[in-house]
Structures are given as C-alpha cells and as structure tokens.
Amino acid sequence: MASWNSAPLHVSFEVLGWFAFACWSISFYPQVILNFRRKSVVGLNFDFVVLNLTKHSSYLIYNASLYFSVAVQKQYRDKYGQKEMIPVAANDVAFSAHAVLLTAISLFQIVIYDRGSQKISKIAYGILLVTWTTAAACFFVALHNHHWLWLISIFSGIQICMTVIKYIPQAVMNFMRKSTEGWSIVNILLDFSGSIANYAQMAMQSIDQHSWVNFYGNIGKLLLSLVSLFFDILFMCQHYLLYPVKKCKLEASPEPDNAKSSDRPLSENV
Q: Is the pTM of this model over 0.90?
C-alpha cells in the first residue's frame, strides 16, 4: 500500500472519511423521528422503503459473508491474490446492520401508523419476487458447487440495482402530490453531505498520490454514487423550489373571504 506524501492531506482524508460515515449513519434517523412525531407515514413512499430494505439486506449479506466467512475469504484470495486485503472492514458490517435495523423500523412504522390510502405497488411486489427468487435459486446453485464468492457477488449486484431504482417511486410520488410533506429532507441533506465528503476524501488521496485512478479505476462505483447524488439534488429541488412546504399549505387552506374582510381597516368596511 502506497504511503502518504503529505501529512495534512492524510489528516484531511481521515476527517472527511469519518464525517461521511457519520452523515450516512445519522441519515436514517430523521425519517423515523418524523414518522414518530406525526404518527403517520403519509407522504413516505412504501415502495422506497421495501426496495431500500432489500438493498441494505443484500449489502449486509455481502459484507458479513466476506468479513466473517473463512471459505469466502479463501475464494477471494484464490481469485485476486493471496496478499490482497479483504475489502470489507468491521465498520462496513456495522453500517449495514445499522441500516437494515433502521429501515426495518420504518417498515414497522408503516404497519402501525396512519398510512391513508397508500400501499405497496404491484410493481414493487414484482421486483421483490423476482429479486429474492433469483437470490434463492443462486443460493441452491452455490450450495451444490460451493461457489460462495460468486453467490455474494450476486447480492452485491442486487444492492447496486436497488440503489439505482429505489428513489424513483418517492420522486414520482412527490411529483404527483406536488408536495414533499411526510418525506424527511434532513435525510437527503445528510446523504448529500456524506457523498460530497466522500468525493472530497477521494480527491485528497488523488492529489497526494498525483493520480486519479481511484476515480476512474472503479467507474461502476463512481457512476452509482453519481446516481445517488442526482436524486439528492432532485429531492432538494422538489422540497425547496418546486413544492415548498409553506406554499403547499397556503394553497391547501386558503384564507376565508370573511376573515380577509375582517382584517381590513374599519374605514374600508364602512
């Protein structure tokens, strides 16, 4: 592993990394707290929640398997080299488990709180059915051939697919309702901050090493993170520009005419 040339850049790299980790970890709480305070999940798209749970469950399976399983680690080193480090740390497993727990709590809130006429769509049910049926079929294939590394790569692929599509139902729902009420913007702001910090962290390493390979060397991961940034920006535009909360409330409950009349100066009402 290459050493750092600049101590300040190294310190900045570490600080930005922990800042991103904190933002992404905390980002799960605002929606749960908002649901609890409102005792309602109206405005939170249920398709997003179940797709997000599938995403983080798949990511947890991938991380935990690669971190704890000796058999998976052996197959990884046989494929990529005996001296290669396992690309999953304890904090990756902890983050995934934390994400699954908080997303499951959101799903539980959907069951117990007021949800109006909202429900999980047939499209989401279809996606879940195809996803987990495929995962089960791959499990039995791996069970027969002991191709465990191949199996967890399938779960990694599921995680990537869910990341691409999970935000679409919420964005469409906000557009149809012309409102973001019930959808926590703090979650988006934290996710956006974490992503920007992550890019800044990568830039610090590139500047220090005089190489941008960590950007273009894993173009798939880079494009995936850009998709998340795109949706973060879209949600911020919806919340602050297109459907601001104050504007939506004023349009939803216009002031009665008699109230307007009573607010006029007495001389105008004579």
A: no
